[in-house]
Amino acid sequence: MKSIESEIKDLIKKLFSEKKIEVFIGYENGTLPLRTTPYFVSPNDDLDKLAWNRFCSNNLAVYLPRVVAKKKGGNSCKVGILCKGCDSRSVVGLIKEKQLSRNDVFIIGIVCPGIIDTKKILSEIKSSDIEHIDEDDENIMVKFKDGKKNFRKKDHLYECCINCEFTTPFVYDTLIGDGKSSSNTITSSQKVAEFSAKSRQERWQIFEQELTKCIRCYACRNACPNCYCKECFAEQTKPKWFSVTNDLSDIIFYHIGRIFHQAGRCVDCGACVRACPMDVDLRLFTRMLVDEVKERFGYDPGLNFEEAPPLTTFASDDKQEFITEPS
Amino acid sequence: MKKELENYSILNKEDFNKFFNTLLGKYNIFGPSKSDKGDKLNKINSADDLMLDYKNFKMSAKEFFFPQCETLLAFDPSTGIVKNRSEDVDAKNDIIFGIRPCDALALSFFDRVFKDGAPQDPYYTEKRHRSTIISLACLEPEPTCFCNAVGCDVDSETGADIILTQLNSRYLIKSVTEKGIEILKHLKTLIPATEDDIKEKDELMAKAKSGLKSNVEVKALKKKLDDFDASFWQTVHQKCLGCGVCTYFCPTCHCFDMTDEVCNNTGRRIRTWDSCMFPLFTLHASGHNPRPSYKERMRQRILHKFNYAQENYNEIFCVGCGRCIINCPVNLDIRKVIQEILEAK
Amino acid sequence: MPDFEPKIVAFLCNWCSYAGADLAGVSRIQYPTNIRVIKVPCSGRINLLYIIRALQKGVDGILVSGCHPGDCHYISGNLFARRKFALMKKFLEYIGIEPERVQFTWVSAAEGTRFAQVVEKVTNDIRKLGPLKYFRKNDYNDKKCNFSSTSENPNFLSGAVNK
After folding, report:
1. Residue C3 included in any domain
2. Which residues does the UniProt record annotate as the domain 4Fe-4S ferredoxin-type (chain A) (predicted)?
3. What ipTM was reported for this prediction?
4. Which of A48, B130, B228, C132 has its CA 20 to 30 Å from the CA of residue B9?
C-alpha cells in the first residue's frame, strides 16, 4: 500500500502547486485501532499524516456540498477528493442533482480493494487494548494485550463491499491503482433474498426489531452523501410529518421515509450502516431498493452524467403489474 | 485509622446472591444487563441477569433519570382531565446498581442542573430522591477512557451513595452518603473490612490508574476557550457530520426540547433529548439561525462542556467515559480536539 | 372480524379519478362508504410520506387513483407516478406491510362504474385483513398514556405503539 500512498501525496502536492485545488479531502489514521478519520488538507500542510489503507471507510463525498459552498462567493474553488468506487458514484450523484458543479471537484479515483469491517475484527478480539497492527496481502495481523490473531482480509470485508460491483470509479480526473476490474462475483445480496423469502409477519417483526435499536441520532442521515436536504422531512414543522419521540411508530416512520427517499439514488456505499452506533442493519432495507431499481429500470446510480435518474423520467411502457383492477 | 474503616465492609462473593436478593425484596433494582440495544441499564429481576464483568455499557446511566422521551403531562379535553406525571408513584424505591464512577459523577452534574438550582425540575428530582446509586470501581479502563484528565477517576466517589470494588473473591463496599449507610445497615451478609482489604483495593486502583493512557491536559483549556472568535474553530469542526451521537451518548449532555403531541383529541406534553449539533436546536421562528453552520454548533458543544460549565458550576461537564469517541461515525476524537485547541496559537 | 369496517383514505387526482368518483355518485352507483377522499392535483403529487402518515394516524388502508397512462392532464404526471408507485408497493410489501393495504389504480372521468368496483374490491381486501394495528400511534387518553415511570417501564421506552 505504501506506493499508492506516496503516489497520492505526490499528486496532491502537484495539484496544490498548480493551484488546481484549494482543499483536499482524504484520510488519516484515526485515534482508535483499525480506524481512519477524514483529513482536510490545506495547501501548507505537510502530507505526512495522509493515509490510504484498507480501513478508509468513510464516504468523503458527504463533505463536498458544504466545503464547496463555503468557499464560494468569491472565485470558484476546487476541492480535491479521494474517491473509491462507491464514493465517486456519490459525487456523480451530487453533480447530477445540481449540488455541485463538475468544475468544483478534482476526483482522485482509487481502485478499491474492499474495505475491512473494523467491528467484525474487534468482535473476534476480546481485548480492546490493541498494541500493534500489521498487514500483508492476504491478512491483517493484530497484536493485542493477551495475544495475537490473524484475520483474512477477504473474510472481514463490509457487507456492501462483498456485494460491490463497481470497485473502480467510472468518473475521475486521475485514477490511481491498477484498473483491474473487480473480482467480486457475488453482486446480489444474500441477505435480501433470505429476507424476502420470509413470511410477512416475520419480515415486519425483523424490521421492527432492527429499528427498536434506533435512538434517532440521525447519524445514518448525516453520514449519507445523498441526504443533503437543507431541511429534512424529519425536522420539518410545516407540515410536521411525525413526532420527535422515540416511540417505535415514529422511528419506523423516519426510516421508511429516509430509505424510500434514497430509491434510485442510493449507491450502496454502506455509510449509513457504518455510521449507526446501535448497529441497525439499514442495508437490509436500502439494498432491496437498489436491486429493485436495477431490475425494473436497469439503472445503476452514479456511473455517468448522461443517464437520467429513474424517478425523474419514465417510459410509456413501464411495467404496471401492481395496478389494482376491479375483479 | 479505626474511624476510617468504619464506612467499609466486606461481602464475600458466595454471599453476593443472598445480599442482592435481600435488596431485591425492598427495592426495584436497575443494573447493567444485555438487551437488544446493547449492554445497558435494565430492570433486574434476579441476580443472574446482572452482568458485572462489563467495561462500560453502551448507553450512559442518564437515560434512567432523563429518558430520551418523557411524558410530563397528558390531557383529554373531552373529559377535562389533565394528568400530571408525578401522580403515579411506585411504593418501592429504586437502586441503580453497578454503574461506573464516571456515570455517577455525571449524575452529580445532572443534580446541579436539575435538582440543586432554582427552578427545580420536579420530574428529575422525584426520580433522584427515590433512588440510591451503587457504583462499581473500574479495574480495567478502556483505551478510550480519559477520566483522569477531567477530574474523574477509576474510583471516584462523587455522585455515588455506595461504591463497590471487586477484590479477589470478595467485594469491598464503602458507603459514601447517609443514604448508603442506611441501606447497608442491618445487612447480615456484610462483615467488617480490615486494613488488608483497603490495601488490596489501593493496589488494584493504582494498577487501574496506570491503564489510563490519555495525556490530555484541560487546565490550560479555559483560557484558550475564552476567545470566542479564535481561529482554531475554523478547523476543529471540519469533519463533524452534525449527527447527535456524541450528545446522545454523553452522560452529562442534558439539553432537551418540549413538544405537545395531539392525537384524536387527546394529547400529551413530552420532553425529549435534543442536541446542540442539530440545526433545529437554535432555529428561530423567524427563520434566523444564530448557529447556522457546523462551526458554531461544534463550538457550542465544546464551550458548554469546558467553559460555561466551569463558569456556572465550577466543573468540567465531561467525565472522560469515552462514549463519544467510541461511537462517533468519523472518529472525531474529543481528546484530539482539546489537543488541537491547546496547540493552536 | 365480521363487524370490522375499515377506514380507507383515497387520494384521487383532480382531473380523472375525482371526476370518476363524482360520476359514480351522480349515477347513483352503490359502493362501500369506507373511503375518505382527499383530492390531489395529480397522482404525481403523491408522496410516500402521505401514505405512511395516514397509516400511522389510524387509517387501515390507502387507495391512490389517477388518470390512465396517456390521459394525464399534465401529460406525464401519472407516468412519473407509476415508477414511484411501483417502488413504493414493492418496498412496503418487503418490510412486511400487507400489499392489499396500499393499492394503486387508474380511473378516468368516464368510469364511474370502474370506480365503484375498485372501491368495492379495495374495501373487501382490507376488511379481510382487519385493522392495521402494528404501525398505528395510539390515543393519549389517560389510561393508555404510558408515563415513562422508571418502575413501570424498565426499558424507558414510552412506547405508544399498539401491539
Report:
1. no
2. 257-287
3. 0.92
4. B130
